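Attaching the record inline, Q. Sequence:
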Amino acid sequence: MSDREGHSGAGPSDEDLSLPKATVAKMISELLPAEVTCAKDTRDLVIECCVEFIHLISSEANEICEQESKKTIAPEHIITALKRLGFDSFTTEVEDVLKDHKQQQKDREKKADKIKDSGLTPEELMAKQEELFAASRARFAQPQGQQEPSTET
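Structure, as predicted:
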């Protein structure tokens, strides 16, 4: 068993913490002009900086949480941590993202309620889903020029 396989109960070491390289590379390429590329060692440095930033913010938020005798870090703790650490300029965007996230959660709940309130049994819902899959497969199987317009709303 290697050192990385053992479980000491202390959690993962800093070496084990990272971000997906492909995701970071995609984000970097989307932000840079098309004619600019990013070297792999630069991408790795960006990843290390991001991990360190996350560690810094979460540690500060944890301290705030402990001071308030809370056991769960809430979004408000992150916002307060950003302010304490001098990242006030980030808070407006973070609050906007939080607001969008909460709206998405509400929309998901409404969608779940819509299914629940449909009056259909689970079996009827499964049958309806199978019908939709079959229709989709049939449309996909047709050559591109011959696809019929959808009649569903």
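The helical segments are 21-31, 40-67, 75-84, 88-116, 122-141. DSSP finds five helices and no strands in the chain.

More tomorrow.
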